[in-house]
Design goal:
With 395 residues, this protein is an alpha/beta fold. Helix content is 37%, strand content 14%. The chain starts with 8 loop residues before the first strand and ends in a 5-residue tail after the last helix.
């Protein structure tokens, strides 16, 4: 069965993580993703976490580029610009994450393409926005994390501010790209007109610290990280946190301190009925930690879950791989790739009863689909394609 976005054509000019992850999500839902790459390819083809390459293919590129076809295009050549204009006439969505102004300088900015196709939705994603004092600054995940206050929410009070160990700003922006273009698609169904959509890493990650920043803005004061190190959320009190057990760790969410303490065999906390005790939270957390160390994680889970305590094991990636709920949710899947072989990756997180998403294409080789895409969507003949190859417009 076709996915819910079957028939939607996306011109994808994005590289690295935020844009490719967004277009992969759209592709997972059935959209036709035309990945337009420079002759040297997406930057992520040459970068891989842990320097891991499968058959010469970057694991990072493979993670974010399934369900796409690759068209190599030299946008500095007039023929390359003409190709974009012909494809834009048929496209529904353009997504780009160049620095602000690059698409305009190339001659394929929003005004130019919207004049060709007024129904076109044109999404620009940048580091800090299309205007403002930081418009020329490099937009990279760690840099943006540093400027949102997020690192001051992690770690102990004497620690250096601690960033999140993954590209959370990129992921946040990818989600905002997807909901932005889907909202614009719905608007187009009502009005008949496309529009410009703007997303940036900075706004997207600020949205993720919405509750914490609102607490500060409304008189909650600056977040004070715990001294014990158990509590990963500075505005939260005991017993919230991660605790060592005799063989691992356990996560404890918002629970009445007196109930939890009684189950752990601790006395002196009978009066603490709150699930968010800020006074003396470090002392309480240390006492809880001493108790949790006495038994293994699974024993604590069996005891606490039976009493409706909000708790969970703290997993390594190996634990995630073995988790039966991950299997039930079909969140670890495989696809075959011409060079990388069998690629294991994450499944599609959103499930549709009538129009399910699917992995129908592996991540493409560089320029793998240039000729077929030009024939299918640009109306180019074989002779035209040979001319473009001779001009180094395509590979």
């Amino acid at each position: 069965m076709p996915g819910p976005l079957s028939g939607v054509i996306v011109l994808d000019f994005t590289q690295l993580l935020q844009g490719p992850y967004a277009t992969q999500m759209l592709g997972d839902m059935g959209a036709e993703i035309i990945k337009i790459e420079p002759p040297g390819g997406d930057w992520m083809r040459k970068f891989a976490l842990s320097n891991l390459y499968l058959g010469g293919e970057s694991v990072s590129f493979l993670a974010f580029n399934r369900n796409k076809r690759s068209l190599t295009l030299n946008l500095k050549q007039p023929g390359g610009v003409e190709v974009v204009k012909r494809l834009a006439a048929r496209a529904d969505i353009v997504i780009e994450n160049f620095r602000p102004g690059v698409m305009e300088r190339l001659g394929i900015g929003y005004d130019t393409l919207a004049a060709i196709n007024p129904r076109l939705i044109f999404c620009s994603s940048s580091g800090f926005g299309q205007t403002g004092p930081y418009v020329e600054r490099p937009g990279q995940d760690l840099l943006v994390q540093a400027m949102t206050g997020l690192p001051y929410l992690n770690g102990r009070d004497e620690d250096v501010p601690v960033a999140v160990g993954l590209g959370i700003a990129d992921i946040a922006a990818a989600l905002h790209i997807v909901y932005g273009v889907l909202a614009a698609l719905y608007s187009r169904e009502r009005t008949g007109h496309g529009q410009r959509v703007e997303v940036c890493l900075y706004n997207s990650l600020l949205a993720f610290v919405h509750q914490e920043l609102s607490t500060y803005l409304n008189g909650g004061g600056l977040p004070q990280r715990s001294h014990s190190g158990n509590n990963p959320a500075p505005y939260n009190g005991a017993p919230y946190g991660l605790y060592p057990t005799s063989d691992g760790y356990i996560a404890i969410a918002m629970n009445p301190v007196n109930k939890l303490a009684a189950l752990l065999g601790l006395s002196g906390y009978e009066h603490l009925t709150s699930n968010n005790v800020l006074d003396n939270r470090d002392d309480i957390n240390r006492a809880l930690a001493s108790a949790f160390c006495q038994r293994p994680t699974q024993e604590w889970l069996a005891l606490l879950l039976a009493e409706d305590i909000w708790c969970a094991p703290v997993y390594t990636f190996a634990d995630v791989e073995r988790d039966p709920q991950v299997a039930a949710n079909e969140m670890i899947v495989s696809y075959d790739h011409a060079r990388a072989g069998t690629v294991r990756t994450l499944g599609i997180p959103v499930k549709f009863g009538g129009t399910p998403g699917a992995i129908s294409r592996p991540a493409p080789l560089l320029g793998e689909h240039s000729a077929e895409l030009l024939r299918e969507f640009g109306g180019y003949s074989d002779a035209d394609i040979q001319d473009l190859q001779a001009q180094s417009v395509i590979l």
